[in-house]
Amino acid sequence: MLDFLKSERPKRLRIVQNGHPALRQKSSPVKEVTAEVRRLAERMLVTMQENDVVGVGLAAPQVGVNLRLIVVDTRPDEDSLPAEPPSPGEVCLNPRMPLALVNPEITWVSPETACCGEGCLSLPGVRGEVTRPARVRLHATTLDGEAIDADCGGLLARCLQHEIDHLDGVLFIDRTPDEQQKAAATLLKRMEKFELKQLAQR
Ligand code: ZN
Question: If you measure from the C-alpha of residue 152 to the centroid of ligand 1, how many angstroms do you get, rounded to a whole number?
């Protein structure tokens, strides 16, 4: 359980959009979970929750910090029936969500793939179809230093791959078909202009 659930609610952070340099950099590993890192994770969580229409995950670069830290919450809605039985990773991790993962890595991917529509809090209004491995093995640690190794499928597998891509400077739009990238080009350009203006004003 994250500390803020017991105490004062941390302030949300600004989500940076396409065009911000943090989204295109490779992030550095978290060397130690300091109070600062913990606070960042708590603020990322609040930021994700306050955008909960589309937010099932958030990566540190999306709040302008190039550290290998993500937060996820892929618990299914109570009234939605799962298409398939949950994977071992979902069974084990969903009850612990929302969850912050430190230095998350994909250590195995299934040969089977799945195609699904994706969006991103850093690309508001943009959607695209992305084909990814249907199942992955996750290795990560929690904020308390507990190691997690889990075989994940479903929405969790997709979310982990999307968020870990952010840590490597990859956006989902990079993985969509050319015509979908073209269709989003105007919107992406507008975001880029906005971000560059924000940076210039600092
Ligand atoms: Zn994203």
Answer: 18
